[in-house]
Amino acid sequence: MKRFLAILLIMSMIFPLAACSKTEETVVERARAVKVKEIQESENPVTLSYIGTVDSKDIVKYSFKTTGKLGKVFVEKGDKVKKGDKLAQLNIQDLNFQLSAAKSNLDTAKLNIKKAEDSLNYYKDLFYKMEKLYRVGGISKDQYDQIKLQKDTAETTYNQAKSQFEAAKTDYEYKLSLLKKENLFLKDILLLV
Whole-prediction pTM value? Predict the structure, then answer.
């Protein structure tokens, strides 16, 4: 057994030394033939065909901001339209009549406010003079109260005239804006799909 252990000891010392020895391996590279192509940009259109019905999610009806007769329709059923295309136009004759009436009301309101302002200034001046006379005893309390009432009435009339002027001005500006928007453009329509 001693002999066997000695051989085993010797072999265990020789094997590690044999494993550390270097062996040179040579790597041989082989050349391969390669084809080179230039990259080109191209389009491959994809066309899909389906049979069915296309419908919108919601149906929304659009109209002009004012009522009136339709003057012209610029598109027909099946025409392709894009944003900004004019679709229809109202007959603007009725709108012109409405604008003319609103302008007349505005002019009348301007005249009424001027008359009310003149009247108010007159009664304010008269009241100022009568107030001085009343303080010194030149007029009675009844006369003083009548002049004060006339001045207050003139102020109320002036305020009403201002109110009517503002209403007439707003109506005129509204009618003017309607006249500018007598066309229905596709840009005014938000399509909901």
Answer: 0.52
